[in-house]
Design brief:
The protein is of the alpha/beta class. The protein is 41% helix and 18% strand. It has an 8-stranded parallel β-sheet, with helices on both faces. Strand 4 (87-96), helix 4 and strand 5 (125-130) form a beta-alpha-beta unit. Helix 8 (222-233) packs across helix 9 (237-252). The longest helix is centred in the middle third of the chain and has 18 residues, at 104-121. It is globular. The two termini are 15 Å apart. Bound molecules: zinc ion (2 copies). The site of one zinc ion has 5 residues, from loops.
Length: 255
């Protein structure tokens, strides 16, 4: 049994194919997933999926790439949604320095506002970090995000950065890149993360694992991610699956 902690079944690439995609995931042992909504279009769809399927949970937040579009009323909306029983985390939120649609200062501001909200509503946070590792750690420290904890999703930073995040009660989640043939760093880092802080995800439809790299990703492939990490840690797939699922349920407070 596996828990895909970060999927976007709520975007166009899965239009009309959600049911089939879920069935393929189920047949690979994916029992639970968290669908992440990150803007005005994808949040309602994440909520709809969480309300339709008992094994689907929702995380809702504002993506850093679109930080410039977030209004005060959107933050209010997130606060309302946070009270929904199927909303298990706020996010994804964070910093993305790869794209320049939203200036860094705006991204930081929107990130901080969402951390404040997470503390207020007492939910863990899902962090999106692209090319912004040190700034993310600095903000998490300054805002005392250890209070909420959460997930470093699709982690791509160094072991030092991971250790800083572990100290602040964060879980480290790995996706497709850990399986890429030329990816040394995520493999080295994944090997060192303590078992009780490790999560797996796909970030579907993005970042499909080997041998599907470049194709549309889907939750069924989280098994490939888990198999790779089990191999790196030299433990059985079953042990890895069981522990990462238990970790996800603990973090999301699912019984
Ligand atoms: Zn992300
Ligand atoms: Zn995502």
């Amino acid at each position: 049994m596996l828990f895909d902690t970060h999927v976007h079944l709520n975007i166009d690439q899965f239009e009309g194919e959600v049911e089939d995609t879920i069935n393929r995931a189920k047949s690979e042992g994916v029992e639970w997933m968290t669908v992440v909504g990150f803007d005005r279009e994808t949040i309602p769809k994440a909520m709809e999926l969480a309300e339709t399927y008992d094994f689907i949970y929702a995380a809702v937040g504002w993506h850093p790439v679109d930080a410039i579009d977030m209004k005060e009323e959107d933050l209010k909306w997130l606060e309302e949604l946070a009270a929904h029983p199927k909303v298990v985390a706020l996010g994804e939120m964070g910093l993305d320095y790869h794209w320049d649609k939203s200036p860094k200062e705006v991204q930081k501001e929107v990130f901080r506002k969402q951390i404040h909200l997470a503390k207020k509503v007492n939910l863990p946070i899902v962090i999106h970090d692209r090319e912004a590792h040190q700034d993310i750690v600095d903000i998490l420290k300054e805002e005392n995000a250890a209070e909420t904890g959460g997930i470093m999703h699709c982690f791509g930073g160094s072991l030092e950065i991971a250790q800083e995040c572990l100290k602040m009660n964060f879980y480290i989640s790995f996706g497709g890149p850990v399986t890429f043939k030329n990816a040394k760093k995520p493999k080295e880092v994944a090997k060192e993360i303590p078992m009780d802080r490790l999560l797996v995800e796909t970030d579907s439809p993005f970042l499909a694992p080997h041998p599907y790299r470049g194709k549309r990703n889907e939750p069924a492939y989280v098994k490939l991610v888990a198999e790779k990490i089990a191999e790196l840690k030299e433990i059985s797939f079953e042990t890895l699956a069981e522990q990462t699922t238990a970790n996800a349920k603990k973090l999301f407070r699912i019984n």
